[in-house]
Design brief:
single chain, about 325 residues, mainly alpha, DNA polymerase, domain 1, hpI Integrase, Chain A, 2 domains, four-stranded mixed sheet, about 55% helix
């Protein structure tokens, strides 16, 4: 019999001294020797198998003759009594399916009663967005160089302001910004058209779209382009370049944005996708036009964009809580 692994947090106290039944212990030996699972994984498997054995024992259900309706009952009891979250439920069901798959291969059971049984869907976390005032503060922030004579600081400052304006003003993905060239070319993935005030980008699924560039972003673009030639290599088409004159990568953009946000006193860690979320949330709050936001973001399906309606509702709920006399908490 397999020696019991340490129990994970949240296990029922009554299970701790309970040994695994022979077929479950044999399965543990199989995954330890044949599949060579990591010690932490073995702990998780042992915990899930002990819970299955305990639940089956409480209901007088024989594990080797378990039927689908009984499996559903055990899963419901697990969810109801132990109150596991959707992710933990999915993990337990995965372990149980694996057990019966192995039992079937060993010809110890006729069917897998957990096939087709899925855990409740986990709620998708809402994307984090900056408040309007914070986003504007970040966009308007001007870094003060310690050495006023450092010409390269002025260049980098202009580049980073342009970077923020495009991420927040156009709702670009960081990959779209990385691939953008200063002007259209035969091999360009994306480019800027100052005359039309448009940015053309290559989004997910190799789908190209054009997004309007606002006046603030246009001003930042022109300021950067007037200095870009002093940094960029002569043969470098990229819009955003580093101090060595080559195209900026996503890691460099994230690092520059993080440093700029810290210097601007932002209340939270700011990353490129947060500015995209902020763009979408603020446009939706102002216009209420979900289809327009979908087009601007380049989402293939409206369901992807609908998450921003939840962000908008949260904004409205905060206003309600702060302003409505019946919503104010008693002091």
């Amino acid at each position: 019999m397999v020696k019991q692994a340490p129990r994970s947090e949240g296990s029922e106290q009554g299970d701790e001294a309970q040994p695994l039944a022979a077929p479950l212990a044999a399965y543990m030996e199989h995954i330890r020797v044949q599949r060579r699972l990591a010690p932490r994984s073995l702990v998780i498997y042992a915990d899930a198998l002990l819970r299955l054995q305990s639940l089956a024992g409480q209901t007088g259900t024989a594990l080797l003759t378990l039927r689908p309706h009984q499996a559903r009952s055990l899963a419901a009891q697990l969810h109801r009594d132990i109150e596991l979250g959707p992710r933990s439920m999915a993990l337990h069901l995965s372990v149980w399916r694996g057990l019966y798959r192995w039992l079937g291969a060993e010809r110890l059971v006729e069917l897998n009663p957990f096939d087709g049984l899925r855990a409740p869907k986990a709620a998708k976390p809402l994307p984090k967005a900056l408040a309007v005032d914070d986003a504007v503060q970040l966009a308007n922030f001007t870094a003060n160089a310690a050495d006023a004579a450092a010409v390269v600081d002025a260049r980098i400052e202009a580049r980073d302001r342009c970077m923020v304006e495009l991420l927040y003003g156009c709702g670009l993905r960081v990959s779209e910004l990385v691939g953008m060239d200063a002007q259209a070319g035969p091999a360009s993935l994306g480019w800027i058209d100052l005359v039309a005030a448009e940015a053309t980008v290559l989004g997910k699924g190799s789908k190209r779209r054009s997004v309007p560039i606002g006046s603030a972003a246009l001003a930042a673009l022109r300021a950067w382009l007037s200095l870009r030639g002093q940094l960029a290599r002569s043969d470098e088409p990229a819009l955003l370049v580093g101090q060595r004159g080559a195209r900026l990568g996503a890691v460099q953009i994230r690092a520059s944005l993080k440093a700029r946000a810290l210097a601007a006193g932002m209340p939270a860690h700011v990353h490129p996708h947060m500015l995209r979320h902020s763009f979408a949330s603020h446009i939706l709050q102002s216009s209420g036009d979900l289809r327009a936001v979908q087009e601007l973001l380049g989402h293939a399906h409206i369901t992807t964009t609908q998450i921003y309606t939840q962000l908008d509702f949260q904004h409205l709920a905060k206003i309600y809580d702060a302003a409505h006399p019946r919503a104010k908490k008693k002091q």
